[in-house]
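Please check this:
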Amino acid sequence: MTIANPARLQAARRQIEAFRLAGVPPKGAAPDAARKLQLSPAGWPVTRGALVAQLVDRMGGVRQPMQANTSYCGPASFLYCLLEDRPDLYVAYATSIWTHGDYRIGDLEIDPDPGTAAALGGINVQRARNPKGGHISSLDWLMMASLSIATRQWFVPGSSAQADDVARSITYPWVLKRWFAAVGTRPVHDSMGLGLGKAGLREFVQAMHYWGRHWIVLQIDSSLIVGGTTSTFENRHWVVVDPHYRPRVRDGEGRVVPLGDIVERIVPRAMPRAGVYWDDSAVRDWRMDLRLFSWGKEGVRARTDRLGDVPARFYGAFAFPRFG
């Protein structure tokens, strides 16, 4: 992780220190008063000190947003982008939810119900029983579950986020767009639509053209990446193109070029009585070097590097201007 704006990072660290100092009791305070300062007024079962430690690690790049065994790949993707560009907002969000139980980003009101906070208690119990079980961290549950439940769609049952939510915690494309809009950025490229079907290789390559000044967020089948599983609807997965590794491809002449620069090699062809289609046969066997942020890690490689294998595992992409 390399936070793009050092001034924002310093502001975030000052916020963490102020939050920490708010938990230091005045000299001579009773032990009960000191303990109370470590407890979340909003009912989150994580101490102030534990949250501070996790935020310090996060600002230092020790750990990235990680959904662990939940289905919060959408929130993890958005929060990764927020952390990189606006670490100050990231810290303000976490500490406000812990203190007040709500937070507003733009016109997005994040106000999880008490049940979402209480669910962290069950996660803590499971973590204590099995410390190596890969459970979501307190910081990530507080931020991801709060974001998810605050924007849960009207047709999805349940008013509290639970650790075993799967289908109910799906991030729909229009919801992800709403999160980015809250920080003032709207997509300049959108091949997701409603996310009902797969997108083509041309749309995949077009999205890569925006690398550098934009966040490129893809919805893929998890089988596209190393460690992913087979292709089913349940394995739709949100990922972010790694901002530190430009996507590249080795073309038919052996040259390594930016992946986004080859879109002109995918050309329209007319078919009798069938309109026009995009012919990608010239590039299908070309090999790409694509790195992604996924499952709390940067630099995750695609399982296959052949461009022709992408469309069967690709549902669409957004390119959002960076926010700073």
About this structure: The two ends are 16 Å apart (CA to CA). The chain is about 35% helix and 20% strand.
